[in-house]
Specification:
Largest sheet: 6 strands, antiparallel
Bound molecules: zinc ion
Order of helices and strands: HHEEHEEEHE
Helix content: 40-55%
Radius of gyration: 34 Å
Strand order of the largest sheet: 1-2-6-3-4-5
Number of helices: 4
Shape: rod-shaped
Number of domains: 2
Number of strands: 6
Structural class: alpha+beta
Strand content: 5-15%
Distance between the termini: 95 Å
């Protein structure tokens, strides 16, 4: 066989060149496509992370410098108050309370506001939102929205306990 090699070699070379060309094209189109998908996926992940961060921030309680207290339900009450009213925490387990107070069991929080009307609004809303059964104690400036051991009652104006809660909401939740 005279000189078949150059032809074969030329054929192989041409095929190889074609394969390379095709590979380059796939790399351009195929990988470029994957790149776009990857970018989209990364953007989606970033967006999700932002949403999670925002949700975590919303869940975070501004304890206003006080020691965090409470089980899940007390925290639910606190979160609702802080998220919906112009109020802030004024005490948790520190400060001065009666010796048997829920405060010292990490089950109570005091809530204040610069606005007296806002405190009343918040107290009423807490009772409406969660119901008396939620609270071991709910005291505050609205005498009609008091709760002791899950039962709503009207505080008698001028009572010592009533007078102590003219300027803040006290909420005790044992769960
Ligand atoms: Zn209190």
């Amino acid at each position: 066989m005279p000189a078949p090699l150059p032809t074969l070699r030329a054929k192989r070379k041409r095929r190889k060149a074609q394969r390379n060309k095709q590979a380059r094209k796939w790399r351009r189109t195929g990988l470029a496509g994957h790149g776009r998908l990857a970018k989209k996926a990364a953007a989606a992940v970033r967006k999700l992370k932002r949403l999670v961060k925002r949700a975590k921030l919303a869940l975070r309680i501004d304890w206003n410098g006080h020691t965090p207290v409470g089980g899940k339900n007390l925290r639910k009450v606190i979160r609702y108050a802080l998220a919906n009213f112009d109020v802030y925490i004024t005490s948790t387990n520190g400060g001065t309370h009666s010796t048997t107070s829920y405060h010292y069991r990490n089950q109570a929080v005091d809530i204040g506001s610069n606005s007296a009307a806002e405190k009343v609004r918040c107290q009423k809303a807490l009772l409406k939102k969660f119901g008396p059964g939620m609270f071991a104690e709910l005291f505050g400036p609205d005498n009609g929205a008091w709760v002791k051991d899950g039962s709503q009652y009207t505080a008698r104006d001028g009572d010592a306990l009533e007078t102590q809660h003219d300027d803040h909401i006290h909420a005790a939740v044992t769960s």
